[in-house]
Task: structure prediction
Amino acid sequence: MNFRKLAAAALTLAAATYSAAAQEYPARPITLIVPFAAGGPTDVISRIIGDHMSKTLGQQLVIENAVGAGGTTGSTRAKRANPDGYTIIMGHLGTHAASVALYPNLAYNPSTDFEPIGLVAGTPIVILARKDFPAKDLKEFAAYVKANEAKINMAHAGVGSVSFTTCLLLNSIMGVKPTSVPFNGTGPAMNALVGSQVDYMCDQIVNVVSQITGGAIKGYAIATPERNAALKDVPTTTEAGMKEFQASAWNALFAPKDTPKPIVDKITAALDKALDDELTRKRLLELGSDIPNGPRRGQAALATLVSSEIAKWSPVIKAAGVSAN
Amino acid sequence: MTAGANPTAANDGGSGGTSGDFWRTYGTSLVPGAYSIAALIAWWMTKNSPGVATLELGTAIGLAALAIALPVLGFKIPNRQDYFGGLALILIGLFALWASRDLPGMRGFAFGPGTAPRGFAIILGGLGVLVAAIGIFTTGPNVERFAIRGPALIVASTFVFAASIRPLGLVFASFVSIVVSAFATTEVRWLETIIWAAVLTLFCSLLFPWGLNLPLQLWPNGFNPMQLFR
Amino acid sequence: MDLVANLIHGFSVALSPINIGLCLVGALVGTLVGVLPGVGPVATIAMLLPITFGLPPVGALIMLAGIYYGAQYGGSTTSILVNIPGEASSVVTTLDGHQMARQGRAGPALAIAAIGSFFAGCVATVLVAALGAPLTVLALKFGPAEYFSLMVLGLVFAVVLAKGSIPKALAMIMLGLLLSMVGSDIETGQSRMAFDVPELSDGVGFVVVAMGVFGFAEIMRNLEMSQESRDVVNAKLTGLMPTLKDLKASAGAILRGTAIGSILGILPGGGAVIAAFAAYTFEKKMSKDPSRFGKGAIEGVAAPESANNAAAQTSFIPLLTLGIPPNAVMALMVGAMTIHGIVPGPQVMTKQPDLFWGMIASMWIGNAMLVIINLPLVGLWVRLLRVPYRMLFPAILIFCNIGNYSINNAPFDVSMTALFALLGYWLLKHDFEPAPMLLGYVLGPLMEENLRRAMLIARGDPMTFVQRPISAGLLALAVLLLVLAVLPMIRSKRNVVFVEGEN
Result:
């Protein structure tokens, strides 16, 4: 047993001995690590949900953006934090699933190094193409990309980003390997797509609603089982005949391993309450988010989700032969 | 990169004082000699990229030739500022070349990750040669004396802040690092420093966490040595 | 005319007492965070987002926009007084601005920065209102090839703005380019020159480099000066406000800076960064006596400050018309809009006229407020310089360290800054200029990434850079400027050789 584990164990013991500590929790502000830049979809969701959870818990949830290496920097920091309930993290498809295959030297294991708190929200992925792309629906799109594979450019927001990972799955379903053009974030990638410099990309719904409704780009399908209120006219992948392509950039809260159970339960309860709150729901829905209902909530459901997502994305990433370091 | 630049800073610090004469006479050879050895080590550590290795070996030979030629010809460098500056650029270029030696280059029409760093490193080395040559063939100023106290204590105070902000919180980190930095000048006064550090600490503790709502912890929450380095 | 009616509508929204109040709060907070080195608008807007939940959307956005351009004003103060550029666009301001401060002319430098920014802000606001939609077309014409050529032009600016030896300036650009390569490769995600240090996996931050090489190194140099020589500088402090002569000298610079900034600001992905450099280079080339630049020429403050403020305003254009955020602050504004249920994009103008025109009007009001706030502050700032240096520099250091830490909450960044301070100190001793290095550092990734993108899209055909007209034009301009910069050097070198031959 190494020193860090020993220290963690000692702290857990201390937390258990002073059972009063758990009852009094939280006695001071809680740090919520957001492993992405302020203003991004994950950050906005964290702030909306944190705002309401602070009211329930009676202490401020202070957001700390710890950006770097596709969110793995912040997740590593969360893993190493004291398991006392005062540091939790907003995990994400990238940090707690795709990272396993993407980063061979990953400093944490998403399924064993964290206590799941609960799924917060999912942001559906939309298949997009430049406005003059010669295909009227998803079937034609797939056929056209396949037929013109050598000419086609796929844009993505950088290796390890959600737009990259999800488009890898799309490509493997379509059986194509087009030239992939990396951009530094979704903004520049979207700019290139609107300017018809590249042909297609995958992105989270939050970033694309206005461009699709304004006619600046085409949206072929949304990769969720149901249509989204923010983009009523865009069919689901199932409707469009590609039901294998299901992808959502989910966000979920985790606590470091060995955080006392009563404390985790308390946070889970606060999260549930926030997800039932009228105003919070409205805000999340305006972002195009998909809010989990009964069976998808809670700790056990999140643990299952993490292992199923790791199983889903790892082969796709390995098959594409990319790895980040 | 900084690490590559520092040895010269330390070396140049030797100009003046008792070792001055020795430095003045042999420094212009010792520095390229030392860099040449560094280049040899880089060459020895480069296993898989013959192109990079050749460049490293070439640099080593060139620098060694320079180190030997100067005392043999009895040539005194007229513009030491540019001469040492140029040599350090060569060293930095070499370091970058070595650091990016194993990155793949061009693959078909796609640039590899290594193309740009190696290209820039080679150009930087080339410009280093040019700047050093200007140092050899034109007249110019000597290198100014390097102070030790100021820079050392400023760096120390910054390190103190970095090491203590997480485990000890803002109050202790600010106070200690302000006191350390105050000693960077000989004008420092004990009592004034303590009072001023206390005032500044109070101001910072009010302004940043409270006024600007930044997520900074004021006090240590139960001493935890594990966080010292993260 | 439609525009006038819309603007009147906008002013009626922006002039409601609550919106004026929020605009003032935003401008004040922005000035404060802009002055504090490292803190910057991104962190502040992020922290204030939840507070805006309770506000009406128009008011919330007016306040956040106020923070953004307030920070621009405040950032120039720090650049001029303590030589710490808060962001890439204020690097140029340090060149002549801090020299002016060292000569006891901090007051006029600060004042002209405020006046130039105000003028630029006003003009650019009208531009946003009148030509927002048509100008967007220009932004869309810029693909990877055009951006690459623009970055090449930007690097040529770095050569021109150097005041000393051109080989040394070129070497500094290369050093900056190399520094910017540290981190993860954009295409493969491979780690480059990061030595398996996780904190380096996304490269070295701009604030880390700028604060170390400019600010900390400057403190190290000041500490070497004796107390007496520093007191001389303090005693020299003359007039707070620019003289008539200063104003005359700056008028043209402000106009040209505004024009350059307004155009370049529209380009997302680096346009605003280049604006200040372009404006400075242009002034230096226009000037009858270019040798004054870098030694405290007031045009060297007026032009880049006008340019970066104009660019800050026009960078709203891609956001408002396309819904695409061109920089981190704008990304936050998108976040703020979405939290309030507004989808940024072309529809905002028609669906939310209150918001669109209200915000535009508030930009003008905000700029006016900032001048009113900042001109009296000039006196205060200048008085701060009279605090004995032995007390002033620990305060600057601690503000830097806290601000730097607050960006990523990473102690590693703070330690790195100390190392860059040593590099900066070494550069000073060997008479290398740090500004070209910083420009190379900022433009490096943009240049490499766009080059690689362009080559990917053109399937490896380098002709793409000359076949596309905008790209070809930019490259031609770069070559022309480089020739203009190098020619006088070759000529003067020949003179030097000649003079030495006579001795």
Observations:
- Chain A has two domains: 3-123+250-320, 124-222.
- Residues 298-320 of chain A form the longest helix (23 residues).
- The beta strands of chain A are 30-34, 61-65, 87-92, 114-130, 153-156, 179-182, 200-204, 217-222, 248-256.
